[in-house]
Write a structure and sequence with these properties.
There is one protein chain. It contains 14 helices and 4 strands. Helix 9 packs across helix 10. The protein is mainly alpha-helical. The two termini are 68 Å apart. It folds into 4 domains: 63 residues; 106 residues, no CATH class; 111 residues, Receptor-associated Protein (Up-down Bundle); 64 residues, no CATH class.
């Protein structure tokens, strides 16, 4: 009984010491004076309990009686005889000594494993906004908040959340306004440049404008409006483009992750554990972020799993993932069969994935035909047409060097545009 009491006191002391360590870390990181006072009083209270259980350890140790070791030495005629340890049968004394060395090494290894592992201290990382973002917020934050309260930029706010961009809506809208104004001043500089200079196809490629200033201004004034408008539209639709990209990435991972979830659910574990296992595999980086957000809904905000699933379905960038969340929430609420649900959903998603793969294969064949027609055949026909026009003197007559330059630039530009289009259309990792 004394040993059991001693062990119980040791366990309590261990738990109290762990709580004191955690509170000390919170005290070190805390910046609020009132909070520091509360934590300090809790630490002092735990120290009192620690001393109390320490006294209990001493009392329990005093109640333990340890028998004395048996003295097997013998004294004969005043001589003290030490016992002789016989080696094991069939083993020589040298082998027995090596056997003892092996046992000692194994014991040392076991003791090394039993030592308490060092606790990794994770430092909090605070990501501060850039100076450009701070300046934009200081100038337009109030304006952005007033527009948000009036219900403006609703879809932009939804896309910001779904695209996992690290901006609050008011800050991003302020950034749009500030960037548009900066682009307007840049457009003024570009307009001023083209007001006095012009680009030509032949060397020196940059020549002074010879026409009147008013006529030249009528030709280039559109730059003042085109550049800011283009910047504004790009910044406005950028979250939507990011959401679409993230949706494609999630949809490519979802069929295989659902198969994995189906096999895990057969072990009849808690549904939330399925998502934690998927996160721990680190095989689905884009889904890992979405599942981490789901865990934050449960562990940080305190929602139950069904509420968190429905909330994540509303904010999910992928329609297929939203359907999975809603179906899982319905299955949990109605007490349905989770393994069967994941199995059917995995079959559907895998079938859709095969259709998408076949669709991309057919599109690649079509693009190959277009490339042969537009990038290879069309420039050759155009070059022959220009040469015939030069020889006959009809229409536009270009020199041989100019025809060569036009063909090289035209083919290069078409290749760049075609490759960019293919890069945008093809699935990631293809």
């Amino acid at each position: 009984m004394a040993i059991e009491k001693l062990r119980e006191n040791f366990e309590r002391q261990k738990k109290i010491a762990e709580e004191i360590r955690e509170l000390s870390e919170e005290l070190r990181d805390s910046r609020n004076a009132e909070e520091r006072g509360i934590i300090s009083s809790q630490i002092e209270s735990l120290k009192k309990y620690l001393r109390k259980y320490g006294e209990g350890v001493v009392e329990a140790a005093e109640g333990i009686s340890v028998p004395k070791p048996l003295d097997i030495s013998k004294t004969v005629s005043g001589y003290k005889m030490q016992p002789v340890i016989q080696p094991m049968k069939g083993i020589s004394p040298e082998k027995a000594e090596r056997f003892d060395e092996k046992i000692s090494a194994l014991e040392r290894l076991t003791l090394g494993r039993m030592k308490k592992k060092e606790v990794k201290v994770i430092k909090r990382k605070e990501k501060k906004p850039s100076l450009y973002v701070k300046l934009a917020s200081s100038l337009f934050y109030d304006t952005a908040m007033s527009l948000i309260k009036k219900g403006k930029f609703y879809m932009l706010r939804r896309d910001l959340i779904r695209a996992n961009l690290e901006f609050v809506p008011a800050t991003y809208i302020s950034l749009i306004f500030f960037t548009t104004i900066v682009s307007f001043f840049a457009a003024m500089l570009i307009t001023g440049f083209f007001l006095f200079f012009n680009l030509v196809a032949s060397p020196p490629f940059l020549v002074a404008v010879e026409e009147s200033l008013g006529l030249r201004f009528l030709k280039v004034f559109w730059i003042l409006f085109a550049v800011p408008a283009g910047v504004y539209l790009f910044a406005y639709f950028y979250p939507s483009m990011e959401k679409k990209t993230l949706e494609n990435r999630i949809n490519r991972e979802l069929p295989f992750a659902t198969i994995h979830m189906s096999s895990i659910s057969n072990s009849m574990i808690e549904p939330s554990k399925i998502f934690s296992i998927i996160i721990s595999t680190e095989e689905y980086p884009n889904l890992e972020k979405e599942f981490t957000k789901l865990f934050n809904e449960v562990n940080v905000y305190g929602y139950d799993l069904v509420t968190a699933l429905r909330d994540m379905a509303f904010n999910s960038p992928s329609r297929k993932l939203a359907e999975l969340y809603n179906g899982l929430a319905t299955t949990i609420t109605s007490g349905g069969d989770l393994p069967n649900f994941f199995d059917k959903r995995a079959q559907t998603l895998l079938f859709e994935h095969r259709l998408e793969t076949e669709k991309h294969s057919k599109a690649a064949e079509t693009f190959m035909d277009i490339y042969i027609s537009v990038v290879i055949a069309a420039p050759m026909i155009l070059m022959l047409l220009l040469m015939m026009m030069r020889l006959s003197g009809l229409g536009i007559s270009l020199s041989t060097g100019m025809i060569t330059l036009v063909m090289v630039l035209g083919v290069s530009l078409m290749n760049v545009l075609f490759l960019s289009f293919l890069h945008l259309k093809q699935p990631e990792g293809a």
